[in-house]
Amino acid sequence: MSESSLTAIDLFCGAGGISQGLKDAGFEVLWGIDHEENTKPTFEANHECEMTVGDIREMEPPELGVETGELDLVAGGPPCPTFSLVGRSKINSLDGRSNTSDDRHLLYEDFLRFVNHYEPKAFLMENVEGMLSAENDDGEPVVDIIKDQVTDLGYEVRVQVLDAADYGVPQHRDRLFFIGNRLGEENPDMTAWETHRNPRNEEEKQLKFKRDPAELTDENQQTLDGFSEEEQQERFPQFDKDRSTKRPWNTVADAILDLPPVSPDGTTPPTKASEYEIGPVSEYQYWARDVAEDANWEDMPLYNHECRGHNMRDLTLYKLLGEGVSFIIGDIPEEHQPYRSDIFPDKLKKQNPKEPATTVVAHLYKDGHMFIHPREARSITVREAARLQSFRDTFEFPVARTHAFKQVGNAVPPLLAQAIGTAIRTEVLKEPLAEPPKAD
């Protein structure tokens, strides 16, 4: 472990979206844990630290090679599906008892148990937006209960709902974040770290081509893609507090339209593409390719870009949809419905290339009806879903496609984790900004 590194652990780590974002923000992730065995090949293929598969309720915090109070950050997104059961138990009382015997146990308490053990300087906890309005069986706001428990551990905390699209992720994804520290510092207001915004006009919704600054002329430098020359030369991503200019949201087109076509059962296009056919086009695509400065994109392998099979009825329904149009299954004539509408109140949705994607969900492992490609008659691939979640193309998912979809959908977008990690590093831990991550 480098003496200059900020240190972190990732609880409920999954594939490692938070770990990747923290790494890009300049943290060294020392350890991760998740209960799902299929996440281990993915995590270990992309991260250098140890990852444990197990039930965190049965785990004692491991030795990390750091003294109590020296760990900089505990991060994670504990599932919390039963808000009504949240109670005012003391976290200290969790030590020494069998959590698995308690049917009411909530996993966020184990997150706080690890915080209590390591006494990190800061913590980051992610959850669904619905927690913000949830109450327990006694009518107490769940967020207030958790804030009180965190205060009992000696931490000041800020709670915010963040949309990933405001931080460069080409996807609308609203999630709740608890950011806390025990150093007496003010926790960052993440609205001050936003890099992107709602586009002001139709022109700003178009695919944002990346140009070589050397090609700018006096005639086009002020109008190219709607950005000034200074903005054109700014490296993506760049997280600065209170930035004077914000860019329009990254869109589905910005994210995935450079990837080669694939088809459910064709040979041209094939069902799977393992190499790129053209270079990156948009600024986001250049970043996502993660090509080393002395390398060529043509030499890079393309991972996880394989089309799932579709029957002819699904393909025909997909063709009915215009860009960004969704059908609730119950609205489709009964004879054409793929599922019973009384059991599956789901949607068919073709993603709009001019907007950020809708929230990428783990349900993708079952079917892709809500993520139909904007230009091709199919649902999106794992690689396209990963792009929409801001995993770069060098991040490989070496597992079966169903597991890969689930891991992508459950992840915290790395770009969003990088933004929060950068804010914690600079505002709470008082460390200078990390150098932008370079391609391997």
Provide an overview of this structure.
Helix 1 packs across helix 11. The chain contains eleven helices and eleven strands. With 440 residues, it is of the alpha/beta class. The chain starts with 5 loop residues before the first strand and ends in a 12-residue tail after the last helix. It has helices at residues 17-24, 39-46, 108-118, 142-152, 229-232, 252-256, 283-289, 312-320, 382-388, 401-410, 414-428, and strands at 6-11, 27-34, 50-53, 73-76, 122-128, 156-163, 174-181, 196-197, 247-248, 326-328, 347-349. Helix content is 22%, strand content 12%. The chain has a seven-stranded mixed beta sheet, sandwiched between helices. A two-stranded parallel sheet has the order 8-9.
Q: Which structural class best describes the helix and strand composition?
A: alpha/beta
What's the end-to-end separation, in Å?
20 Å
Q: Averaging pLDDT over every residue, what do you get?
A: 86
Count the strands?
A: 11
**Largest sheet: spatial strand order:** 3-2-1-4-5-7-6
Summarize the model shown:
The chain has 440 residues and is α/β, with parallel strands linked by helices. The chain is built from eleven helices and eleven strands. β4 (73-76), α3 and β5 (122-128) form a beta-alpha-beta unit.
Q: Which keywords apply here?
A:
22% helix, 11 strands, two-stranded parallel ribbon, single chain, globular, alpha/beta, 440 residues, seven-stranded mixed β-sheet
